[in-house]
Write a structure and sequence with these properties.
The chain has 121 residues and is an all-alpha fold. The chain has 5 helices and no strands. It is 74% helix and 0% strand.
Length: 121
């Protein structure tokens, strides 16, 4: 919680002390960095997945939701908005989501079976 409070304090200080445009740019970039970290966070389990040969620690519903969300925003950012602030972090998140899905498909929940993730063979 200390990290959260520190970050919130820094963001509040930036918002109060800097001109609006400058504060918005800096705070927006901080938000993008946290967004990318959030997308990558399930990949912290990669070492465990490789060691145990099980992707049980990677939640499939969250992975699928992340892929769908990132894909939607990446397409919107590229096609409609043409805004790299929207499409770049979402393309990165899409790659991370696909990496998680690949781990889930390859390792399943431990016995390398497609049944582990809800698919019948």
């Amino acid at each position: 919680i200390q990290g959260f409070l520190t970050t919130a304090s820094i963001i509040a200080a930036l918002a109060v002390t800097l001109p609006n445009h400058t504060a918005a740019t800096i705070i927006g970039n901080i938000g993008i960095a946290f967004c990318i970290l959030m997308f990558a966070s399930p990949l912290v389990a990669m070492k465990t997945v490789f060691q145990t040969k099980s992707a049980e620690s990677i939640p499939l519903p969250l992975t699928l939701a992340s892929i769908a969300c990132c894909f939607s925003w990446a397409v919107t950012g590229l096609k409609k908005m043409r805004d790299p602030v929207v499409y770049v972090p979402n393309l990165i998140g899409l790659v991370f989501g696909l990496m998680q899905l690949a781990l889930k498909l390859v390792y399943g929940n431990g016995n390398n079976s497609a049944k582990d993730i809800g698919y019948a063979m």
